[in-house]
Amino acid sequence: MAAPILVTGAAGFIGMHTAERLLDRGETVIGVDNFNDYYDPALKDARAARLEAREGFTMVRADIADHERMLALVRDHGVERIVHLAAQAGVRYSIENPFAYERSNLAGHLSMLEAARHNGVKHLVYASSSSVYGDRPLEGSGFREDDPTTDPVSLYAATKRSCELLSQSYAKLYGFPQSGLRFFTVYGPWGRPDMAYFSFTRKIARGEAIEVYGEGEMARDFTYIDDIVDGIVGVLDHPPAQGGHEIYNIGDSSPVGLMEMITTLEDALGAEADKVMRPMQPGDVTATYADVSKLNALTGYKPKVTLAEGLPRFVKWWRGYENG
Ligand code: NAD
């Protein structure tokens, strides 16, 4: 039987879906999560319960920054591949809570690098973020992996770029194959309540006002969760050669304005939003737009689900979840 795959952040949004996909294809998966209370712990418990009901899945409640524990976990289970998704996410939260990012994103990433290095791991795939590209206007073409990443506008972005640099140095020093994935605004069923599409859904359905930042001028490359998982699993199956470290965008490659996203949500909910316009918040960027040609060349990746298809799927899930 193939060695188990370690998925960190398995009680998180992307982690749960990734673990499910791996289980679907017959892999054995060990999940790690510290179930922190950054958002609704009941949602993390519900995701974990879904996974724990599956054969071949084990959840370990641990902090990834505990490097001795991570080292032992990878060693004792003979883990050969790691999908490292655990992190403190959120741009705005990082301004108020910098040390949460130091622990989960910096110490946590280093801990996974050490665990991989000392145990002969064959491929470490880890989450980065579109935020590393900084604040750029929307232009005719998407952000490419070799574009400059020297001007992070949030602490979150700075920690994500730091993870890429740590990985680059480990690839040079110790040679185990690594792939970093820059995700672009991921949405879908079992998503994150701190993200705009989720909190807007709740508020519009309850008749509460929504705060629209950037006066509605922002645009995001909203990417449906199944497309993100296609990208993750595709990359996992295509490790770079020994000593290699590659970075890939995973996005929808078709940015949508915030106002259009809200209209799509209103249609899906059958209700009109009471919008309060607000200026851009510190740490926010104007637009994101993924060029996915590098990933396409590796795996044939093509995003399949448009925002107009994906948001109604989210709303349908949310209604079921809200009603227990
Ligand atoms: P999430 O918050 O739902 O999942 C992250 C999980 O990691 C959570 O369950 C959390 O409890 C866990 N975690 C955090 N710190 C930990 C620690 N120190 N030890 C153990 N577990 C810990 O977020 P997500 O949206 O699923 O994001 C997954 C990854 O993708 C993150 O690295 C995030 O930065 C990155 N990312 C997400 C998006 C997006 O739009 N969702 C975009 C870009 C990048």
Task: Describe the 3D structure.
With 324 residues, the chain is α/β, with parallel strands linked by helices. It has a single domain (5-322), classed as NAD(P)-binding Rossmann-like Domain (Rossmann fold). The protein has 11 helices and 13 strands. It has helices at residues 13-24, 41-52, 67-76, 91-96, 98-118, 155-174, 196-206, 225-236, 258-269, 293-299, 307-322; strands spanning 5-8, 29-33, 57-61, 81-84, 123-129, 178-183, 186-187, 209-212, 219-220, 223-224, 245-250, 256-257, 274-277. A 7-stranded parallel beta sheet has the order 3-2-1-4-5-6-11, sandwiched between helices. Helix 1 (13-24) runs parallel beside helix 2. The longest helix has 21 residues, at 98-118. It is globular. The two termini are 38 Å apart. Bound molecules: nicotinamide-adenine-dinucleotide. Nicotinamide-adenine-dinucleotide (NAD) binds at residues 9, 11-15, 32-36, 44, 63-65, 85-89, 103-104, 108, 127, 129, 183, 185-186, 192.
- Say what the CATH topology is: Rossmann fold
CATH second-level architecture: 3-Layer(aba) Sandwich
Helix count, per DSSP?
11
Strand content: 15-25%
Q: Let me know the CATH homologous superfamily.
A: NAD(P)-binding Rossmann-like Domain
Adjacency order of strands in the biggest sheet: 3-2-1-4-5-6-11
Structural class: alpha/beta
What's the short story on this structure?
Helices cover 43% and strands 16% of the residues. The protein contains 11 helices and 13 strands. Strands 3-2-1-4-5-6-11 form a 7-stranded parallel β-sheet, with helices on both faces. Strands 7-10 form a two-stranded parallel ribbon. A two-stranded parallel ribbon has the order 8-13.
